[in-house]
Design a protein that fits this description.
single chain; 308 residues; mainly alpha; MetI-like fold; 15 helices
Length: 308
């Protein structure tokens, strides 16, 4: 187990290096001149002399390979660069935006776990009942609905028509309900399917048949069934966290929440390349880390994988 963990961690080095190369190349493939963009953002007259001076200031006068290695050196030191628009540290911009995104994602994850687990168990327990069929139709419908349209529908119904929840901002706790529900709904549908299908598969297994033959109650049998879906449930939960953090882009912009997603979209419109680069790198690293955690947990959990 220790050997496997060390190998997986060592494998992260070339993987992270590849991610940094992709992030750097994608941003630099943009046809716009970053020096010219910086001048326009700060309302400075664009002249050839001003462009050359800005290139030197930003280090863009150096060869591309040298720029990449300088960027890597700064990353190792914890320096993500400086915003073209605000002239503040990108690291500071991210630190200010992360709490809102984290708060939104964690509240959405709470809704996913509670409703996904409860409804999934009920659907499996009452398999092929009217309740199960209605939930499956609802899952099919909600999975097909775009999140931005769902967000606008929630704003119209709950904020304008019923006037229960605010349509933007986080001045009160109620402000997190609509955006987190919008973000969570698609994942709730996924969790319901995973839990329902896993429980139905386990329900038809031999050890459950044996448990019924022994005369165990329905509640005792259900408890054994739920214990045996912990692996797919934990894997789905772990991998949902980076997806939720990355999926806040549309939600934060519709509900005017000052998180990472809104920061990224604003940076795209302003062509603030250092922030875009840092955001893409941050999300990629999140996926890598949670994928590593999932792999290690599965190795610890499943003895069959240890033998491979």
């Amino acid at each position: 187990m220790i050997e496997y963990t060390i190998k997986r961690i060592l494998f992260l080095v070339p993987l992270l290096l590849g991610v940094t190369i992709i992030c750097f190349i994608l941003v630099n493939l943009n046809p716009s001149n970053p020096a010219e963009v910086t001048l326009r953002i700060n309302n400075i007259t664009v002249t050839p002399q001003a462009i050359e001076e800005t290139k030197k200031e930003l280090g863009l006068d150096k060869p591309l390979i040298e720029q990449y290695f300088l960027w890597i050196q700064n990353l190792i030191k914890g320096d993500l660069g400086t915003s073209y628009e605000t002239k503040t540290s990108v690291k500071e911009e991210l630190i200010n935006a992360i709490p809102v995104t984290f708060y939104l994602a964690m509240f959405a994850l709470f809704l996913i776990i509670v409703f996904g687990l409860a409804i999934g168990v009920l659907c499996a327990y009452y398999e092929n009942s009217y309740f199960d069929k209605i939930i499956r139709i609802a899952i099919f419908t909600l999975t097909a609905v775009p999140s931005f349209w769902l967000a606008l529908l929630f704003i119209w119904f709950f904020s304008i028509y019923l006037n229960i929840f605010p349509s933007n901002g986080l001045e009160s706790f109620n402000g997190i309900v609509l955006p987190s529900l919008t973000l969570a709904l698609a994942y709730i549908c996924v969790f319901i399917r995973i839990i329902r299908n896993s429980l139905i598969e386990i329900k038809n297994s031999l050890f459950i048949t044996y448990a019924r033959a022994r005369g165990l109650s329905k509640f005792q049998i259900l408890r054994h069934e739920i214990k045996n879906i912990t692996t797919p449930f934990i894997v789905a939960t772990t991998m949902a966290i980076p997806k939720l953090l990355a999926g806040t882009v549309i939600i934060e912009n519709i509900f005017a929440l000052p998180g990472l997603g809104r920061l990224c979209v604003h940076a795209i419109f302003a062509r603030d390349y250092p922030i875009i680069q840092a955001y893409v790198l941050f999300i990629a690293i999140l996926f890598i880390i949670f994928n590593l955690i999932t792999d290690i947990w599965l190795q610890m959990r499943d003895s069959r994988l240890k033998a491979i």
